[in-house]
Design a protein that fits this description.
The chain is α/β, with parallel strands linked by helices. The protein has one domain: Rossmann fold, CATH 3.40.50. Helices cover 33% and strands 29% of the residues. The protein is built from six helices and ten strands, in the order E-E-E-H-E-E-H-E-H-H-H-E-H-E-E-E. The strands form two sheets. The protein has a six-stranded mixed sheet. The protein has a four-stranded antiparallel sheet with strand order 2-1-4-5, with helices on one face. Helix 6 links the parallel strand 7 and strand 8. Helix 3 packs across helix 4, helix 4 packs across helix 5 and helix 5 packs parallel to helix 6. It is globular, with a radius of gyration of 17 Å. GO terms for molecular function: ATP binding; ATP hydrolysis activity; transmembrane transporter activity.
Length: 225
């Protein structure tokens, strides 16, 4: 089984008042196709930095990130932005939907950015809204949706360009327990069905049984407990 996301020897340091601080220290991670990995750790342990590097939002001080076997290091701004658009899907704590767009338009924006043919994009939108159970809400504006529905739109949007890797940052933080479980079980199911590699940063222990592996970020490295 291939690893769609690989982080090798990731080190991130920065200067703080003349003192060099190490946030991530030769961190390694491989996430296989169809696997959902949860990452936990206290505030300040470097989870956001880790996710930013995995999501091509931040270049590490040292180390390498591979998506589908190809390194994303040393690319120019345009190429990196294409990588984020084509190969990565992001799901955030709040759904971050655009207020004045309908559900179907939220997804179309992503397709347009990627230059996808309109007919192909419409077909993909139909499929995804059906998959996340929101076909009946396709013409609704973001403000008319419940928290759980918003997160389902965010999942569909993250999958729109068929990325290799899904990255979720506290996706249940704004939801009650039942909706949180629904959202994570949906992410886990879609990751398996569509052969993605997924990483979810979370504080929510209730959803850990739905993940294939749980890792803790400690002293700049990912460890099993």
């Amino acid at each position: 089984m291939r690893n769609r996301l690989v982080l090798q020897g990731i080190t991130q340091t920065f200067e703080d008042g003349g003192v060099k601080r190490t946030i991530l220290d030769k961190l390694d991670l491989k996430v296989a196709e169809g696997e959902l990995v949860a990452v936990m750790g206290p505030s300040g342990s470097g989870k956001s930095t880790f996710l930013s590097i995995a999501g091509a939002l931040l270049e590490p001080t040292e180390g390498e990130v591979l998506l589908d076997g190809a390194s994303i290091m040393g690319k120019n701004k345009q190429d990196i932005s294409d990588v984020r658009l084509q190969q990565l899907g992001f799901i955030f704590q709040s759904a971050n939907l655009i207020p004045y767009l309908k559900v179907e338009e939220q997804l179309m924006v992503v397709a347009k950015l990627a230059g996808t043919d309109k007919n192909k994009a419409e077909k993909r939108i139909d499929e995804l809204l059906d998959t996340v159970g929101l076909s009946h809400r396709r013409k609704a504006y973001a403000e008319k949706l419940s928290g759980g529905e918003r997160q389902r739109v965010a999942i569909a949007r993250a999958l729109m360009n068929d990325p290799a890797v899904l990255l979720a940052d506290e996706p249940t933080a704004s939801l009650d327990a039942e909706r949180g479980l629904d959202i994570v079980s949906m992410i886990a199911r879609l990751v398996k069905e569509q052969g993605k590699s997924a990483v979810m940063v979370t504080h929510d222990e209730r959803i850990l049984p739905l993940c294939d592996r749980v890792l803790f970020l400690e002293n700049g490295k990912l460890v099993h407990h």
